[in-house]
Amino acid sequence: MALNIRTYRDLTEPDRSALVEQIGAQRRRVADRMAAVRHVVAVLSGKGGVGKSYVTAHLARALGRSGRGVGVLDADLNGPTIPRLLDAPAGGARPAHADAVEAAAGAEGVKCISMALLLRDGMPLAFRGPDAESFVWRGALEAAVLREFLADVAWGALDFLLVDLPPGVQRFAELTELLPAPPAALIVTIPTPESADAVRRALRAALERGATALGVVENMVGGPFAGSAADDLAREFGVPVLARIPFHPRADVWDGIAKCIGGAA
Amino acid sequence: MKFLCINCDRQMVFEERQLPGDGTLAAAFRCPECGRCVAILTNPMETQLVASLGVKIGGRTVPAQPMETVRGMVVTGRDNAFAEDGKRETGNGPTWTAEAQERLARVPGFVRGMVKRIYGDYARDHGIAEITPTVMDTARSELGLEGM
């Protein structure tokens, strides 16, 4: 005879572990920190090697030059490059207070956090844990690091927090789940049709998760990469081409994008 | 995850957590009606999955520390990556015996500042003026701080 067992949701007695409440507290911590940030912009591509970090850093510096409060969260945990691109000192200690760790200060007053600030030189990001089947838990730990970069850094009041994403769409999905509202998305591509293919998938995934696409930045234009990826994507998704960055860009290119983003966000 | 005593139709309540230090975890639950106890034993991978979420079985024993997952789980961090705010250690804060300091020095630098803050807060909350290895053992046991 089958046992008559109440289901999980039938059990309403107090739960000392309160795991759901603990997760809720984590989310509130993110929301509280992000309440002082006017715009979160995810810089994404889906394609590796198109210059997301380069665009992120130079856009951040241009926004900083225009007088805006800017932070950059380096969400590429395994290949972090943002501190170097922002000329932020990598070797110092991050002051840790009771409720937050201080961000590093880069050029033009841009704040940043990155695993590059925390790891030993030349060492990969490695976690404590069993070696076998690490693929099962590593993704959850990386999402936890992203959560702490959002919630536990003393970002202060910012006009823009730019999130430099690694290739692919998974980190964007994690970001969207952690934030109180989906971020805006700035799409970076190079001109080639191969890049357009990869970016199309990532952009579609971002839009399905509620992101607002600010527009497309086409990087490395006029170099060895031929094609019309930015125009194709802009037409297909109904978003503007915000800039075409030459292979050897002048500084005022970035100020132009900053003006677009400042007005569009 | 919840536990139900089928005989009593009562939800079992968390009783105790043990972290032997080999990556496994034991958590005991008791039926408030009949007193029957059961324990859930997790292997290192299962324990790691829970830790990856940043939650504590049995509830939080210390307030969330900034970047506690980063500092507690990353093994390739720089020793001097963090400089702990010393404000709360001034004035009438607890002192550390030489033996306790020696033991603290064995904690990896990446997480040491956070661990020191947790022990300091524990001592302050319990009116303890001097932190000794015994105090550290008691705090570790009460707070469920594996490897600290």
Task: Show the helix and strand layout.
The complex is a heterodimer of chains A (265) and B (148).
Chain A: H1 19-34, E1 37-44, H2 52-65, E2 70-74, H3 82-85, E3 94-96, E4 104-105, E5 111-113, H4 135-151, E6 158-164, H5 170-178, E7 184-189, H6 193-208, E8 212-221, H7 229-237, E9 241-246, H8 251-264
Parallel strand pairs in A: 1-6, 1-7, 2-5, 2-6, 7-8, 8-9
Antiparallel strand pairs in A: 4-5
Helix pairs in contact in A: 1-4, 2-8, 6-7
Chain B: E1 4-5, E2 10-11, E3 13-18, E4 25-30, E5 37-42, H1 44-52, H2 68-73, E6 82-84, E7 95-96, H3 98-105, H4 109-125, E8 130-131, H5 133-143
Parallel strand pairs in B: 7-8
Antiparallel strand pairs in B: 1-2, 3-4, 4-5
Tell me what you see in this structure.
The complex is a heterodimer of chains A (265) and B (148). Helices cover 37% and strands 19% of the residues of chain A. Chain A has 265 residues and is an alpha/beta fold. Chain A has a single domain, classed as Rossmann fold. An 8-stranded mixed β-sheet of chain A has the order 4-5-2-6-1-7-8-9, sandwiched between helices. In chain A, helix 6 links the parallel strand 7 (184-189) and strand 8 (212-221). In chain A, helix 2 (52-65) packs across helix 8. Chain A is globular, with a radius of gyration of 20 Å. Chain B is an alpha+beta fold and 148 residues long. Chain B has 2 domains: 1-59, N-terminal domain of TfIIb (Single Sheet), CATH 2.20.25; 61-148, Helicase, Ruva Protein, domain 3 (Orthogonal Bundle). Chain B has helices spanning 44-52, 68-73, 98-105, 109-125, 133-143, and strands spanning 4-5, 10-11, 13-18, 25-30, 37-42, 82-84, 95-96, 130-131. Chain B has a 3-stranded antiparallel β-sheet with strand order 3-4-5. Chain B has a two-stranded antiparallel ribbon with strand order 1-2. In chain B, strands 7-8 form a two-stranded parallel ribbon. The longest helix of chain B is centred in the C-terminal third of the chain and has 17 residues, at 109-125. The radius of gyration of chain B is 18 Å and the shape is globular. Chain B starts with a strand and ends in a 5-residue tail after the last helix. The interface between A and B is large, with 50 and 49 residues. Strand 3 (94-96) of chain A pairs parallel with strand 6 (82-84) of chain B.
